[in-house]
Design goal:
The protein is an alpha+beta fold and about 160 residues long. It has one domain. Helices cover about 20% and strands about 35% of the residues. The protein is built from 2 helices and 9 strands; from the N terminus they run E-E-E-H-E-E-E-E-E-E-H. It has helices at about 55-65, 135-150; strands at about 15-25, 30-40, 45-50, 75, 80-85, 90, 95-105, 110-120, 130. The model has no long low-confidence stretch (mean pLDDT about 95). Bound molecules: zinc ion (2 copies). The site of one zinc ion (ZN) has 7 residues, from loops.
Length: about 160
């Protein structure tokens, strides 16, 4: 079933389904890039998410996928240290930036791609690549999403 667009949240005009070429948002150490995101656009040039639930859905989808990325275990209250599953410590440092690409589709809307770019750290002992802090990535994700929404010119409502 094709998605039904509501009226423009800015001017109440009719929204047409468009796909937004490429929008990115960054918050250290994470960059989120959305390619071909379905959205609504009115004759006045306002943009809006393709559905009121679209952004919440996208945030959940990305969280689920991030949880599949191998991550070190963090220990310590104040001074967090990260440990590989093999027991070796993952030292702090810049790591190597990697891009994880996902194909997503919101019910009734055309599919699109999301790229998550973040630093991965290789364990010096066993060679396993992992995030040093999954928590830091999670904390950056909502800020990076605000950047994506701003780049898409979505209104700040809800
Ligand atoms: Zn409008
Ligand atoms: Zn290891």
């Amino acid at each position: 079933m094709a998605i039904k667009l509501r009226s423009c949240p800015m001017c109440r005009g009719k929204l047409e389904l468009v796909s937004i070429d490429r929008v990115s948002g960054s918050h250290d150490p994470l960059t989120i890039t959305v390619l071909g995101m379905p959205a609504g656009r009115c004759a006045g040039g306002h943009a809006a998410p393709v559905h009121p639930d679209f952004l919440i859905w996208l945030i959940h989808e990305l969280r689920e996928r991030r949880q599949q990325i191998p991550a070190a275990e963090e220990k310590g209250m104040l001074f967090k240290k990260a440990f590989c599953a093999c027991g070796a410590q993952i030292p702090s440092g810049a790591g190597e930036r990697r891009t994880f690409a996902y194909d997503l589709a919101f019910e009734g809307a055309p599919g699109f791609k999301v790229e998550l770019e973040m630093p991965m750290h290789r364990c010096a002992k066993c060679g396993k690549e992992q995030l040093r802090s999954a928590k830091a990535i999670g904390a950056a994700a909502s800020h990076a999403m605000v950047g994506v929404c701003d780049a898409a010119k979505f209104p700040h409502s809800g």
